[in-house]
Amino acid sequence: MTANHTDDLQLLARIKVGESRAFDLLFMKYYPNLLHFSRSLLPYPSDEAEDVVLEVFQQFWRNRETINIHSSLSSFLYTAAKNRVNDYRRKLKPNTSLENIPGDIMASEEGPDHTLNYKEIAENLERLIKLLPERMQLIFRMNREDELSYQEIADLLDISINSVKTQMYRAIKFLKETYRFDNSIA
Amino acid sequence: MKEQELYLLITRYLSDQTSEAENAWLADWLAADKSNQQTFEEVKRVWQGHQRISDEESIQALSVLRARIAAGEQRVVPAKSRRLQFYWFAAAASLLVALLAAWYLFPTKSNNSRLSYLTIVTKPGEKKIIRLEDSTRIVLGPGSQLSYPKVFDKDNRTVSVKGQAYFEVSQAPGKPFIVQTSVLSVQVLGTHFNVHADPDQPASTVALLEGSVKIRLEGDRSWLLKPGQEISVDHRTRQAALNPLDSATVLGWQQNVLVFKNEQFGSVAPRIEKMYGVKIIFNNEEAAETRLYAQFKDEPLENVLSAICISGVLTYRQQGDTIYVTMKKSS
Questions:
Q1: Which one of A43, A94, B170, B197 is at 20 to 30 Å from B154 when CA atoms are compared?
Q2: Most A CBs within 10 Å: which of B65, B73, B87, as the mutation test of the A interface?
Q3: Can you give the residue ranges of the Protein FecR C-terminal domain (chain B) (predicted)?
Q4: Which of the four CATH numbers 3.30.300.30, 1.10.10.10, 3.40.50.2300, 1.10.3660.10 does domain A112-185 have?
């Protein structure tokens, strides 16, 4: 388990007993990326993406006591959002989007302690990430921030695992080169 | 190994998603060449240096979500178990409301002659903590006034405020807590909130951070405010407008925070006067029209004034409790 997954499991445990603060934290963590993801699946311009994501969280809260997550929390939320987008597209009444649960994602041992203060670097990088093309940015954030595997991203976006890898590579290469360039002139 | 695979291997390694064999390969590769270490460090820096940054949009969306959840629970929960719908708010710990209202329009409500009222007044620059008989806690801000009954009526708890106050209302089922002004009344459906009523403000404002309040205006107009919203009622026209709230501006006074967002010096001067107990006099109109963009937290008055004047065009001079501000004439 990575540190992020451990955090998520703790959040989930607190949400299950009705702690709304934990639910707020979960929302703040995943809302922006889930919104980008939902927007990417819906025709532009659309206000439905906001609704989709809010409904995912609303239903998550409503079903908090019975929710059973076999994969990661992030993968669960993305899948719920995708199902709900599909409901919208079919113009069906949204119903059981939270039932469909993806398989286990790669689990590994506790990661190293990343407690260094990266605030400044983080801000610089965030600025650079925003320069990435939208699709590439989405994939980068799904992988880096929400720790979805290449396969999970490929499934969610209906693209090949190779194009996920290519996009990831280009994103990292861009960030690496640009960050180095920025800092060599500073 | 191609550069693409290499970069992805490094990031997977940093996310603890590599196999033993891959780790071994990576170790060999690192040992092989100094430039490899350099590449590794650069990828590591962009990978680990990145942090998710939450934004205003998420906070706004969260407010909407909370309101929806509250509304949804209200719909499904029968009236008998109304307390359930407060579960969410109780867990959320605080209900925060800010209210700005005009004192000069505010009559002392004594429609219930059985109740004898107490009035507490603070001087400019002074704050007081008051605890009511129902253990509601109130922090009364500078230059403010609070009136409340010595003993609450049996069906409601009604108080009135001039100036600013922060409320932590104790729960009392069947005994709503109400804050009254001449232009509106606020019925609190939760626990904590903040009130600001000021004679120098052109409007009354109620801002809700969490929980639920009902705003009632004369002529039987009423609004149920959603978290993250702010309602302003113009004192002259009595027009009401809904806006997203700004928590730093609304609640900042408690920590002696001043926030000026591209506002004219003349329009923010009353806030400075209240907080520091001074009087500000503008020697020329241009000085009052100067736009300020600044934020101060618990700073002495000297620091606030010199920061405002450091931008170059203004000078100030203090004489006792009076501050004279002048626009420098460009020669």
A1: B197
A2: B65
A3: 258-325
A4: 1.10.10.10
